[in-house]
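Blinded run. Sample ID left blank on purpose so nobody reads anything into the name before looking at the predicted structure. Input follows.
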Amino acid sequence: MTRTPQQLARFEALRTEAVALRAAGKSRSQIKDLLGIGSNALLSEVLQGTVPSAALYRPNAKDGVRRQARELRAQGHTYLEIAQKLGVSKSSVSLWVRDLPREGRLSYEESRKRNDEGRRRYWERERPIREARRQAEIDAAAREIEALSNREILMLGAMAYWCEGSKNKPHYRYDRVAFINSDPGLIKFYLRFLQVAGVRQEDLIFRVMIHETADVEAAHEFWREVSGADTRLFGKPTLKRHNPKTVRHNVGDDYHGCLRVDVRKSAPLYRQIEGWMKGMVEEAMRGASHDRETCLVSRSAHDRLRR
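Blinded prediction complete.
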C-alpha cells in the first residue's frame, strides 16, 4: 500500500505509540482500544516485529489433563478408557498421545494374522448360509419353468447357439454348425435342441478341448457321460499348450475343459438357425412397437377424458 507523506507520518507516530504500549505489557485488544485502531490488519502492521510480554501468556487449561492422558497411555490404557477416566473426547486423547507406543501392542504381522483368522472364522460361518440362500433362490426360479414345447426348445436352442456357437463372418461364409461350451447343462440342452431340429446323433462329431496338463482321459469320459454319445463319435482331443507365465485357475478335479459339437453337412440347419433368430428378433421388435403404440393411444385417450 502506497501512502502519502502525511499518511506515512501519521502511521509512524501510531506505530511508535503501539510499540511503547506493547513494551508496557499491553495486549493487542488493549492497544487497539487505546489507539482507536479499527482494523486488525492495521494493528498487525503497526505491531510488526514486536514481541508480547511473557505476562500475556497463560498456561493451557488442559495441560494437566493432557499430562494425565499420556501417563495413562504409557500404562497401556486404550483411547476409550482414557477418555472415560478424564471426561474428554477420544479425538482429544488421540491428539495428545498418538506419538506414544502402546504397551503390549501387537506387531504388524501379528495384527494381520489375527485379522486373517477373524475373517476365516467369519466366512466359515457365513459361507454355508449364503450358499443355502443362493441355492434356494435358484431352485425357486427353476420351479417357475413349466414343460417346454418343441417350438420353445427350437427358439431357445437357436438363441443359445447364436450366443455361443460359431457364425459366419462378413468376409467369409462358413454355414457350419459348431458349438463349444464348458457348461454340462448347456451342452445337454443343446443336444436336445439338435434332436428336436431333426439331427441324428450319428451326424455329430464330438471333440474335447482342454489344457495339455489336465487329465485328458478323465475329461473324455466326463463328456461322454454328459453327452450320452458313443465313444466312436469322439475325435482326437484338442490340447492347449501350457504357458508357464499364465496363472491358471481352471485346475483341479472339477476342470473338464470344453466340448465341441459339430454337425455334419449342417449348412441347411445353420440357415434355419439364422432364420429362427431373425424371426424372433423381428417379432420381439414388432411387439415392442405395438406396446409403445398402445401406450401412446391410452395416454391420448386419457388426456381427452381429462379435457
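Unblinding after everyone has recorded impressions. The beta strands are 178-181, 204-211, 238-240, 258-263.
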